[in-house]
């Protein structure tokens, strides 16, 4: 992959940089101009390198890791978001199961508001319990409610340079949150319906893309059932695939489907 990244041409990077300037809002922030531009351009270089490697091998989903970054300047952030927006499946931290599920659900929904997600942090205020979903750098911009901003911030993990990423708020609507769990002798698909909302508060110390939601059966009951049934913290959140479609997919693959109500 590093070889592919290093072979990307400056012309391709220039053209993509100009395309992104038209599509997104570039926010230099506290960075000097040279650092900001280099970070964005390097993410574009990673985007093309990963894309070339995937396409050459016939792969349509992938995962990254905070480790094993030898030869790379940054952990892919903006690069991953651009690939997910094109329909590639993804999950972080080597989670191949969720990356595969992400790709399958993107196929089912024609890549419409179907995204890799994580239960990032919880709102536990009584009467307003909810989940703030995110994933550090890599949240899919197909659920952006506002024009995404290209920002560069430090990343306190991985030991690499500050990565560029898209920052935006999610959308309102009903959705399904789904995961795949490995029990050693079998895989299980686990999911529940959620009511999603745009985040209501600014998060200046969390400069990432984010989505807010509440399980339809309530956070306490939903979280309890999720944990007891073996659900993980990586999921695919889809505003487009119906509960019945997800059940049909589980049936197709002969997987038990735990539908939390």
Automatic annotation (TrEMBL):
Alphabetic keyword roster: Arabinose catabolism, Carbohydrate metabolism, Isomerase, Manganese, Metal-binding
Segments forming domain L-arabinose isomerase C-terminal: 114-254
InterPro entries: Ara_Isoase_C (IPR024664), AraA_central (IPR055390), Fuc/Ara_isomerase_C (IPR004216), Fucose_isomerase_N/cen_sf (IPR009015), Lara_isomerase (IPR003762)
Species lineage: Bacteria, Bacillati, Bacillota, Bacilli, Lactobacillales
BP-aspect Gene Ontology terms: L-arabinose catabolic process to D-xylulose 5-phosphate
Single GO MF annotation: metal ion binding
Name listed for the protein in its UniProt record: L-arabinose isomerase C-term
EC number of this enzyme: 5.3.1.4
GO CC field: cytosol
Source domain of life: Bacteria
Domain called L-arabinose isomerase central: residue spans: 1-111
